[in-house]
Design brief:
Layout: E1 3-7, H1 12-17, H2 19-28, E2 33-38, E3 52-57, H3 65-74, E4 81-84, H4 89-93, E5 99-101, H5 111-116, H6 133-142, E6 151-154, H7 166-177, E7 188-192, H8 197-207, E8 211-215, H9 220-227, E9 232-236, H10 239-246, E10 251-255, H11 260-263, E11 270-274, H12 279-288, H13 301-317, H14 319-326
Parallel strand pairs: 1-2, 1-4, 2-3, 4-5, 6-7, 6-9, 7-8, 9-10, 10-11
Helix pairs in contact: 6-9, 7-8, 7-13
Length: 336
């Protein structure tokens, strides 16, 4: 029986984008025993991976002692394959029959494509998540019974410079779910990581009883279980955006100084809306003031609304998957 060591990112979004490569390994080596090392934040996303033998949350320690700890945990095993997306010394110093390392791409490409190149895969396998029963039970408890197709929004990010203004998120949600909106009458799930919860408060306050408050209340696996029920996700460039796209939700990602060609939501249901301000100008502003709160102001509400409506319309035309995920074949929400 093969044993595989898979070393992936400590960042949530990058870890999600690596799951396509992991899915390829589970299908190519169905009897393999997998050890997965990743950051503590994305670790819950890997707990139900088929063939998982050990999950090692790689908490950062001073003087890079986390890498020493990982080497000590892995050096006693003879690995059939090591896939190291961190390009670390550990991947080189543990005994292995075969090794594959991440390398910086020679040309700009999406992170999913860059990961696929580690094993020479073309086309690149799409990210996927293995959601377990415990996460779905948590989603049942968090989303009120009887909630139909809902809008999900992610108004925060791990850096203030990537956050679209909260008042625009609130107005967007109210327009999409208003009487003449494509999701008329729908509830709005608001998601944010625990440290970002207060920054989402203005959106929750503006939505009032229409909001489903999921801010700071889910780990990434439970967030995935909640998001897979959504009709649409709109959010900043963040790990939540990649989770939404990975579970098949039509996803609109908002990008200011970020890199949508590398980190846009992957798949046919992903769309990006970028700033009207040239990226070079935004990056110059970041260099001058990393705390500039106006970096996302160039993303207009109308463009986001138009993109969301167009994406929902496209999802409605190919509603077999959408209906099964969101509300069942007889309950596909009508488009207005």
């Amino acid at each position: 029986m093969s044993r595989i060591l898979f070393i992936t990112s400590n960042r949530l979004g990058d870890a999600v984008l690596s799951t396509g490569l992991l899915d390829h390994l589970t299908r190519t080596y169905p009897g393999a025993r997998l050890t997965i090392a990743c950051g503590p934040l994305p670790a819950p996303l890997f707990r139900a991976v088929p063939g998982l033998e050990r999950l090692i949350p790689l908490a950062k320690r001073s003087y890079a002692r986390h890498w020493l700890r990982l080497w000590l945990d892995c050096v006693g095993t003879r690995w059939d394959l090591v896939v190291d997306l961190r390009n670390s010394a550990v991947g080189r110093l543990v005994p292995a029959r075969r090794r594959a390392f991440h390398a910086k791409a020679a040309r700009p490409m999406h992170k999913v494509e860059e990961n696929a190149a580690v094993l020479g895969l073309s086309p690149p396998p799409a990210p996927r998540l293995w959601i377990d029963a415990a996460a779905r039970e948590q989603a049942d408890a968090l989303i009120p019974a009887g909630t139909g197709p809902f809008l999900a929004i992610g108004p925060t990010a791990n850096w203030l410079g990537k956050e679209w203004p909260a008042d625009r998120f609130a107005r967007l949600a109210l327009r999409l779910t208003g009487e003449d909106g494509p999701l008329a009458g729908a509830r709005v799930a608001v998601l944010a990581a625990p440290p970002e919860r207060e920054r989402a408060r203005p959106v929750l306050d503006a939505l009032g009883s229409q909001a489903i408050d999921l801010t700071g209340r889910t780990d990434p696996m439970a967030a995935a279980a909640c998001l897979e029920r959504a009709a649409l996700y709109v959010g900043n460039d963040s790990g939540l955006m990649h989770i939404a796209a990975a579970v098949g939700v039509p996803t609109v990602g908002l990008f200011g100084p970020g890199y949508p060609a590398v980190y846009g939501p992957w798949g046919p249901g992903g769309r990006v809306v970028t700033s009207s301000v040239p990226q070079a100008d935004l990056l110059a502003r970041v260099a001058a003031d990393p705390d500039d709160r106006g970096l996302m102001d160039g993303i207009g509400e109308e463009r986001v609304v138009e993109t969301a409506i167009a994406l929902l319309s496209e999802a409605h035309r190919t509603c077999d998957q959408f209906a099964a995920r969101a509300c069942g074949p007889a309950e596909v929400p009508p488009l207005r």
